[in-house]
Amino acid sequence: MISPLTAGDLDTCATLFARTFSQPPWNETWHPADAARRLTDMLNTPRAHGVRATTPDGQLTGFALGHLERYGTDDHFFLQEMCVDPTHQRRRIGTRLLEALAQQLPDIRHWYLLTARDSPAAHFYQAHGFRPAGRSTVYGRVTETTR
């Protein structure tokens, strides 16, 4: 079942997020408290939109979260996070999450996201119409802290 994501869902989403992204192919170091802060910030962003997927008995199986951003005369949707429980992947949950967001945002033509190149996620998004941006790239900068 797909339904809107609310603040009451964030602890469960954070636990799923930390577990999912700590496993291959991501192998990132996530703790539920850090994930909860990240997702809370995202949901509190103006014009945020999110959806969640659950089993008939209410178990969370995935979620997607992002926000609208103005670019010129159009709104674009930045899909910031999408996560499907690894034990429930390849069951069209991700597809249903994207479809539910599209229903919430029927007038939005431009969507974008960031993900690892040549990852299963990249292949999933490409299968759903996303393409690498032709003129854009991501730059990163890490600075020393004085803690």
- Assess the beta-strand content as a share of residues: 25-35%
Rounded Rg: 16 Å
Calculate the mean pLDDT score and round it.
94
The CATH homologous superfamily of the domain at 2-65 and 81-106 is termed Gcn5-related N-acetyltransferase (GNAT)
What oligomeric state best describes the polypeptide chains here?
single chain
Largest sheet: 5 strands, mixed
Query: Count the strands?
Result: 5
Query: What string gives the helices and strands in order?
Result: EHHEEEHEH
Backbone shape: globular
CATH class category name of the domain at 2-65 and 81-106: Alpha Beta
CATH architecture of the domain at 2-65 and 81-106: 3-Layer(aba) Sandwich
According to CATH, what is the topology of the domain at 2-65 and 81-106? Aminopeptidase
- Strand order across the biggest sheet? 1-2-3-4-5
Counting DSSP H or I runs of 4 or more residues, the number of helices is 4
Provide the low-confidence segments as ranges: none
The end-to-end distance, rounded to whole angstroms, is 45 Å
- Sheet/helix structural class: alpha+beta
